[in-house]
Design a protein that fits this description.
The chain is of the alpha+beta class. The protein is built from four helices and 13 strands. It has helices spanning about 1-20, 35-40, 140-145, 175-180; strands at about 45-50, 55-60, 65-70, 75-80, 85-95, 95-100, 110-115, 125-130, 150-155, 165-170, 185-190, 190-200, 200-210.
């Protein structure tokens, strides 16, 4: 009887080892649940136009896009293509914002793409076609600045630095933009006053001490 128990125990052990043989039992990874329809359903956005005070107002042809991704919270990359066909990243993450504003006189019909990445590495892309605002002419301030009418005078903020300096040249003083602004590296001590106007069809500026 004792011998039978030993033989039975050995058979059970062999059975367990056989069940662990990967050639017999295999566990396959679950198929990706990310599809283009899922991305379509979970990705949402709204278009806004920017007001002069910096605030935003909803607009069907707005240049500013605010997006978010709902459950199951796939992270996405939003991009479009430049004139050369290169991918241009606009935004990425679960939510964010980006801007699409063609050059003056450009095409108001634009497209952007949304690429989602699943946990198993699967990538799915969808395309969104939108209409955005395209300016037909320069804004009033830019039109005045670029026109041949009148004289333009730039007044510098002389209170930003203690010595009143507002102009300089980094060509002779090694440094970077931060040292120029924060430390005065390369800044001349005396602020200048610019007077610009058109003469014989050319924009000319006079520089002088204030």
């Amino acid at each position: 009887m004792k011998m039978k128990k030993i033989i039975f125990g050995l058979c059970a052990a062999v059975g367990l080892l056989t069940a662990c043989d990967p050639s017999v039992d295999s566990i396959s990874a679950p198929a990706s649940s990310l599809t283009s329809q899922v991305v379509e359903n979970e990705f949402s956005f709204e278009q806004f136009a920017q007001n002069e005070d910096g605030s935003y107002t909803k607009a069907a042809d707005g240049n500013f896009f605010f997006y978010k991704v709902g459950a199951p919270y796939y992270s996405v990359v939003v991009f479009n293509y430049d004139a050369d066909g290169n991918e241009n990243i606009l935004a990425n993450g679960f939510s964010g914002n980006f801007k699409i504003q063609p050059k003056r006189g450009g095409n108001p019909n634009q497209s952007f793409y949304v690429r989602a990445l699943d946990k198993d590495g699967t990538k799915v892309e969808i395309k969104k076609d939108v209409v955005v605002f395209v300016p037909t002419e320069l804004s009033s301030d830019m039109k005045f600045l670029c026109s041949a009418a009148g004289t333009k005078v730039w007044k510098w903020d002389t209170e930003f630095r203690d010595n009143g300096a507002v102009w300089g040249n980094l060509g002779y003083a090694p440094g970077d933009g931060n040292s120029f602004v924060n430390d005065g590296n390369g800044i001349w001590a005396r602020p200048l006053r610019h007077r610009c106007g058109y003469r014989r069809g050319r924009l000319e500026c006079l520089y002088g001490a204030r």
